[in-house]
């Protein structure tokens, strides 16, 4: 009985000391490198400033020239970085002017999506969706598959009945999801590099009535964001065209580490590292409590189960060890 009581007290003391001890500060970036821009944390392998502060290809720009708080920019500045996730290997970005207006469309049209992020090695994640508002239109998001070839990433059709146009009703747009009447939404199910949106009328003839009844807009946004917006006010108000140009639309991009590393093979042979060559694991995943994986975008590192932090830094994955006292009676 006395032994059991003493053991219990010892365990309680260890737990109390562990709870009261100050946790070491979480590692974010390399020594003497800035790890934030405005209110956005910038964990390594991302960074800005001196080249030693980031892995090649993952450099960002901290814009401090404006009157507003500093802005973290990706690539040519088209996208403003809102957050970076090492765990999900995603970057959430904000783009202004990404709502494509097609108010003067009279025939089928291809609209460029832009290449501001694909040129820098990022891809559109499956956490986004295609959104179309308009009457009797089909929108398809496309990507290049080679010379004179393109593939469909996603698409949806939006309809308006004759009665809708006569009563000027757009009540369907205020629900949680578009039903396909006057607007539609379509998921993006895989990592992609979109190059354009193709718009096609579903019925032949003159489309002045459809364009007058409901403006036509198409865009890609973070999945779920569209449902939280006052759509009728932001997009469908003819009296406020400037609001569409200034509308900030979020996107979720996927990233990986590629530059300076061998390309990930399709099959892993004679290699003990999970999803990585041992060389890549050694050079990239600096924390001893990390694992490595490879894919089409390059390599990524994760902390092992029970650890959290930055796997790209030595000592970056931190966990809590508890002393367990075993005894027999």
From TrEMBL:
Keyword hit for Signal: yes
GO cellular component labels: membrane
Cell compartments where the protein resides: Membrane
Signal peptide span: 1-21
Broad class of where this protein is predominantly found: membrane
Alphabetized InterPro entries for the sequence: WAK_GUB (IPR025287)
Organism per entry: Eleusine coracana subsp. coracana
Residues in Wall-associated receptor kinase galacturonan-binding domain copies: 33-94
GO MF term set: polysaccharide binding
Protein name: Wall-associated receptor kinase galacturonan-binding domain-containing protein
Topology with respect to the bilayer: Single-pass membrane protein
Pfam families noted in UniProt: GUB_WAK_bind
Highest taxon in the source lineage: Eukaryota
Keywords annotated in UniProt: Signal
């Amino acid at each position: 009985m006395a032994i059991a009581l003493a053991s219990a007290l010892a365990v309680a003391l260890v737990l109390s000391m562990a709870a009261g001890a100050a946790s070491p500060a979480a590692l974010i970036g390399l020594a003497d490198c800035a790890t934030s821009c405005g209110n956005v944390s910038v964990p390594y392998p991302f960074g800005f400033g001196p080249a030693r502060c980031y892995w090649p290809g993952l450099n960002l720009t901290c814009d401090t020239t404006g009157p507003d708080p500093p802005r973290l920019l990706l690539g040519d500045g088209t996208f403003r970085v809102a957050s970076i996730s090492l765990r999900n290997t995603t970057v959430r970005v904000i783009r202004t002017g990404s709502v494509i207006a097609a108010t003067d469309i009279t025939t089928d049209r291809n609209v460029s999506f832009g290449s501001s992020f694909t040129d820098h090695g990022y891809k559109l994640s499956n956490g986004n969706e295609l959104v179309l508002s308009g009457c009797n239109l089909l929108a398809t998001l496309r990507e290049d598959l080679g010379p004179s070839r393109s593939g469909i990433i996603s698409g949806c059709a939006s309809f308006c009945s004759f009665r809708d146009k006569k009563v000027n009703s757009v009540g369907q747009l205020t629900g949680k999801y578009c039903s396909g009447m006057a607007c539609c939404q379509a998921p993006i199910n895989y990592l992609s590099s979109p190059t354009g949106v193709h718009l096609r009328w579903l019925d032949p003839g003159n489309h002045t009535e459809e364009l007058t009844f409901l403006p036509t807009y198409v865009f890609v946004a973070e999945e779920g964001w569209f449902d939280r917006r006052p759509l009728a006010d932001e997009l469908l108000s003819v009296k406020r065209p400037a609001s569409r140009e200034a509308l900030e639309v979020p996107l979720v991009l996927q990233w990986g580490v590629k530059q300076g590393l061998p390309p990930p093979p399709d099959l892993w042979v004679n290699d003990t590292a999970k999803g990585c060559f041992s060389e890549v694991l050694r050079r990239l995943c600096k924390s001893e409590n990390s694992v490595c994986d490879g894919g089409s975008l390059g390599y990524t590192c994760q902390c092992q189960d029970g650890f959290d932090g930055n796997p790209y830094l030595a000592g970056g994955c931190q966990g809590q060890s508890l002393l367990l006292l075993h005894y027999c009676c």
